[in-house]
Amino acid sequence: MMEISTDLGGLEREVMQLVWASGPLTADTVRERLPRRLKESTVRTVLKRLEDKGFVTHSVRGRTYVFAAAESRGEVAARAVRRIIDWMCNGSVEEVLVGMVDSAVLDSAQLQRLAEKIAKAKQRRA
To answer: What is the pTM of this model?
Structure first.
């Protein structure tokens, strides 16, 4: 697995949301789907930066670059959360989860789903 940065600017985040939601896209398609009108060169520059940071990869169809997410949104989010856990809580996932429960960040349905996922993970590891 390639180590990628989780630091994105606002426009980079907008583009990644499109790529994650829509799958592989050309620069033209990204430009058309963005809520604000940007120059084609700007969109291509953003996609190049995202590729340099490891967020997207490209393939070539004919003479057109097609960009796809290098990793899922969940994988990138998990890595960002891991960085926060390491930085703020000395690596203690438990401290973060207890803090989320104590602060009512998770509702009862979310807590139930989390408990079920934890139980399944424990079974797989046993």
So the answer is: 0.72
